[in-house]
Each structure stands twice: as structure tokens, then as C-alpha cells.
Specification:
The chain is α+β, with helices and mostly antiparallel strands. The longest helix has 68 residues. The two termini are 59 Å apart. Helix 4 packs antiparallel against helix 5, helix 4 runs antiparallel to helix 9 and helix 7 runs antiparallel to helix 8. Strand 2 and strand 3 form a beta hairpin. It is built from 9 helices and 6 strands; from the N terminus they run αβααββααβααββαα. Helix content is 64%, strand content 17%. It is elongated. The strands form 2 sheets. Strands 2-3-5-6 form a 4-stranded antiparallel beta sheet, with no helix packed on it.
């Protein structure tokens, strides 16, 4: 081997090695893991759930007394004039007074119609609702990542099918050129073969552009955590043994959509208890320690004290009884009852919707699985047909039109097969999403 050829081989090897390293392989699991950590929709749902968790952490604050301390100091300067019956009037300026006050007040609600207990239950249910919302968002984001990942795999398989078509067209160009050179072919055959090859090259460029866009969409779902250039797997795994019984089994307790609706019913019922509690009186225990001190300077009244102080402790009970408040209690109760009815109807509606979606999704899944098996058989027939047509064209017993027709059949078969694989995966993912078992 000459030195020039060795140098060329080294350059090609280094280039291929660099390309291979730049195209980092990203698995579906890695894409999902990046999404769970960085997807903005999930982060927003986590923030809402954290807010509910904070409320739950301080849930027993409603059962504790309130204690407030006050401290005040005032100083006044005034001019006074006093007139008396039988005594001369007195008048003075620059009369100063200083007041110091402090107090600690305690208030404890002993009974409020059990509203505090209903509020505690509502906060617990809101926390549970936040957890369900978070899981629902995780499931939806995971489904979106799975679909986005496998659409790239679909485009990759499509690109591979185009490359296969290009190799056949290149062979057609060589055969047409060879036939023309020996006087057995025609110029239009060669020109048509070149036109078809160029069309495949243009389709390949378009397919590469579509793949690049699909990769950007996947990267967006992961919070832009994937490498700038990455590669995906070559295949789409399919579960072809799913049954409607397994999907419907226990779906009432696993479907996030149903669980959300059910939790809203629970919260509305608790809110009704809170509103009904306002009909009852509120009994509270109160206690306070007070301290006041007054200092008077340049007092013109000889009978007024120049210094006084007062300190003491008090306690007692108070009761606030609702008598008439423009019928607001009755109005609020009726509104809360309507909300309970609304949420119960929404729950039934959601159960029916999930049931319909599961049945329709499973019918689609069955159709896609059957179609996939049929297209897998068709692709073998189309490949064999192209192979026979190519050999007949080489032997000169068939025209380029027959070969081109066989190529078209193979191209259509690839399109249908790749679409069937992806659509089957979509239907499978949708069923698992509805079931709530896409992530554990």
C-alpha cells in the first residue's frame, strides 16, 4: 500500500471515529430520566405540590391558640386652661405627659362547629390532590417523551429505507449506462434512472431535516439536557400481548384522571362541612396580661396624679352566635351543595370518558398490531419482487418501467411498515397512560 493511500485511510478513520464519538447514543430510559428531572411542566407541578406540602406541615396550627404582644410609648406636650366654680382659673404651658403600655393577649377557639377539623381534612386532601397532579404530569410528560423518542426512531428507519432505495437506483443507473454503451438500452432509460436517483437524494436531505427537528423537540421535553448531537436506537419494541381485561382491571384506582375527579369530590364535600360549621356559635377562651404607666410633668391641676401605673391579668370566655347576616350562611351552603353535585357529575363523566377512551384505544391497538403483522409480511414480498425485477432487468427480459414499479411497491411497503410500527407503539403508550401504569 502506497504512503498516499495509507495517509488517506488514516484521515478517513479519524473522521469516522470523530463522528461516532460526536453522535452519543441516548436510550429511551436516559431521555425519560432527564425529563423527570428537568421538564418544565413537571417542575411546575412539583412547585404546586410543594406548596400543598407546606400547608400540610403546619396543619395543626389551626388548633393552637394565638398569642400577640403589644408595646407602646407615647409622649405629649400641651397647653391647658381650667376654670373652676368659686376658685380662680389656672393656666399653663409646656405640660408634658408620658404613657407606657404593654400587653400579652391569648385567644384559643374551643368550639367553631368542628370547622377546624374540616379545614384540617381539606388541607390533607389538597396535599393528596397535589400528589396526584404531579403523578399525572409525570405520566403525561413520559408519554410525550416516548412518542417523541420513537418518532426519531421512525425517521431513522425511514432514512435507512431511503438509503436502500438509493442503492437500487444507483444500480439502475449503472445498468442503464452499460446497456446504452453496448447499444441495448436507450437514453431515456438512463435519464429516468438518474432523475429517480436525484429524487431519492432530495428525499434523503428532507428526511435528515425532519430528524433534526424531531431531535430538537425531544430535547425541549427534557429541558434541553441532551447533547447537541445524539443518536437513538434502531428499533421500536412492541407489546403485542396486551388485553382489554388487564387494562380495565382496577383502573378506577390507577387512572390519574379518575383519581383527580374523585379527589375533587372529596374536597367539595369537606368544603360543604366547613360552610355548614358557620351556623354554629364560636366559643373562645381569652386571657391577657396588661401593663400601663403614666407620668405627668408640670401638671396645673393640684388634684391630678403625677405618676400612675396599672398591671394585671385577666381571662374569660366569649361566645359569638350568628343570628342574622343577610342569609349568607344559607346561600353559601347551597352553593357548596351545588359544587358537590357538580363534582360528582364530573366524576361520572370522567369515568365514562376513560372507559370509552380505553375501549377505543384498545380497538386501535388491536388494529395496529394486526396491520403491523401484515406489513411485515408485505415487506418481504416487496423485497423479493424488487430482487426478481432487478435480475430480469439485468438479463434484459424486462423494462425499466417494471423495475421502477417494483421499487415503488417496495417504497410504499416500507412507508406502511414503519408507520405501522410507530402507530402500534403510540396506541400501546396511550393505553398505559390511561391506565396510569406508564411509570411506577
Amino acid at each position: 500500500m502506497s504512503g498516499k493511500r495509507i495517509f488517506s485511510f488514516i484521515i478517513v478513520f479519524v473522521f469516522c471515529t470523530g463522528v461516532a464519538r460526536s453522535q452519543q447514543m441516548i436510550t429511551l430510559e436516559e431521555a425519560i430520566a432527564a425529563t423527570l428531572k428537568n421538564n418544565y411542566d413537571i417542575l411546575l407541578a412539583e412547585n404546586d405540590s410543594a406548596a400543598a406540602a407546606i400547608d400540610k406541615k403546619y396543619i395543626f396550627g389551626g388548633f393552637l391558640p394565638t398569642v400577640n404582644g403589644t408595646l407602646g410609648r407615647t409622649q405629649t406636650t400641651s397647653a391647658q386652661k381650667q376654670e373652676f366654680d368659686g376658685r380662680p382659673e389656672v393656666e399653663g404651658k409646656g405640660i408634658r405627659a408620658r404613657n407606657l403600655s404593654a400587653a400579652i393577649n391569648l385567644n384559643l377557639v374551643l368550639f367553631d362547629g368542628l370547622k377546624m377539623f374540616a379545614t384540617r381534612d381539606r388541607i390533607n386532601e389538597l396535599f393528596a390532590l397535589g400528589q396526584i397532579n404531579l403523578k399525572n404530569q409525570v405520566i403525561n410528560s413520559t408519554a410525550a417523551v416516548i412518542n417523541a423518542y420513537y418518532i426519531i426512531v421512525r425517521q431513522k428507519q425511514q432514512l435507512k429505507a431511503i438509503d436502500e432505495q438509493m442503492s437500487i437506483n444507483e444500480e439502475r443507473v449503472k445498468l442503464a449506462d452499460r446497456k446504452l454503451s453496448v447499444g441495448l438500452g436507450t437514453k431515456p432509460e438512463l435519464l429516468q434512472a438518474k432523475v429517480d436517483l436525484n429524487a431519492q437524494k432530495a428525499t434523503r436531505l428532507q428526511q435528515q431535516s425532519i430528524m433534526a427537528q424531531s431531535k430538537e423537540q425531544l430535547n425541549q421535553l427534557t429541558g434541553m439536557q441532551l447533547p447537541e448531537s445524539f443518536e437513538v436506537s434502531d428499533s421500536i419494541p412492541i407489546k403485542d400481548d396486551m388485553t382489554i381485561e388487564n387494562i380495565q382491571n382496577n383502573i378506577q384506582s390507577t387512572s390519574p384522571a379518575i383519581l383527580l375527579a374523585l379527589k375533587n369530590v372529596d374536597i367539595s364535600r369537606i368544603m360543604l362541612k366547613e360552610v355548614k360549621a358557620t351556623r354554629w356559635p364560636i366559643i373562645s377562651f381569652g386571657s391577657a396580661y396588661n401593663f400601663t404607666q403614666n407620668n405627668n410633668y408640670n401638671n396645673i391641676n393640684p388634684y391630678a396624679a403625677i405618676f400612675s401605673s396599672n398591671k394585671g391579668f385577666n381571662f374569660g370566655f366569649t361566645a359569638s352566635v350568628p343570628i342574622l347576616n343577610y342569609m349568607n350562611v344559607n346561600r353559601n351552603i347551597k352553593q357548596a351543595q351545588l359544587d358537590v353535585t357538580y363534582q360528582e357529575i364530573a366524576l361520572k363523566q370522567q369515568k365514562n370518558a376513560v372507559d370509552v377512551l380505553v375501549k377505543a384505544g384498545f380497538y386501535n391497538y388491536q388494529y395496529q398490531v394486526s396491520l403491523l403483522k401484515l406489513e411485515e409480511e408485505n415487506i418481504q414480498l416487496a423485497k423479493e419482487n424488487v430482487s426478481i425485477a432487478l435480475e430480469r432487468f439485468k438479463l434484459g427480459v424486462s423494462t425499466f418501467l417494471e423495475l421502477r414499479e417494483a421499487q415503488k411497491s417496495l417504497e410504499d411497503a416500507y412507508d406502511r411498515l414503519i408507520a405501522a410500527r410507530y402507530n402500534t407503539k403510540l396506541s400501546e403508550t396511550e393505553l398505559l397512560r390511561l391506565k396510569g401504569e406508564l411509570v411506577k
